[in-house]
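Treating backbone geometry as a discrete language has practical consequences that deserve illustration. The sequence in question and its structure tokens are set out directly beneath this paragraph.
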Amino acid sequence: MFRRIDQDRWERKEHYKYYTEALPCGYSVTVRLDVTHLYEQVKQKDLRFYPAFIACVSRAVNERKEFRMGKDAEGNPGIWDVVHPSYTIFHEDDHTFSDIWSFYDEDFRKCYENIVSDMETYKDCKGPKGKPGQPPNFYCISCVPWMDFTGYGTWVPGGEPSLFPIITFGKYTDDRGKKELSAALTISHAAADGYHTSMLFQDIQNILSEAVL
């Protein structure tokens, strides 16, 4: 469900107005995440890292309202009760990718199984959009498993920054058993400030470090 924000009582009313009217802008932040615990859990339980990572990040995203923002048909800002991950799958035969999406579930196993099932079902569907019916309450997450990057930026010439988060992560590195990867978040400044992004990455790291899959 989409819940329209009562802007008269909203602490971010002036910030939202400023960053959508006076200075429409977004930003990208890249951090390093320790994925050692998640990697070990995945290996012990014969799971797949990519869908497990998506499920963990989706939990963190859904726990903070700033990353569940959207607009209604009249352009009014609001908060979704839940947002679902929209993610990329890679086609080895022609080196193209497709976006597919899965329903988020608070239960890790259910969320993980939703993602794995959709990856298998739509693995041969080509084109930018592999799975039809994407709901309006989504956020974007993708992986660049061939590259360990230290910075990331994205933009839409002539467009507006997205209120929903766009998360991109890279290849994990191994330093004497400690595994880390870079993860970048891009979002409209109208939706979230540096504080909110810092708290989101802190939540993601806590989930990755403590998750029992």
User: Anything to note?
Assistant: The chain is about 30% helix and 30% strand. The beta strands are 2-4, 26-34, 69-71, 77-80, 84-91, 96-101, 138-144, 166-170, 173-175, 178-188. The radius of gyration is 17 Å. Residues 194-210 form the longest helix (17 residues).
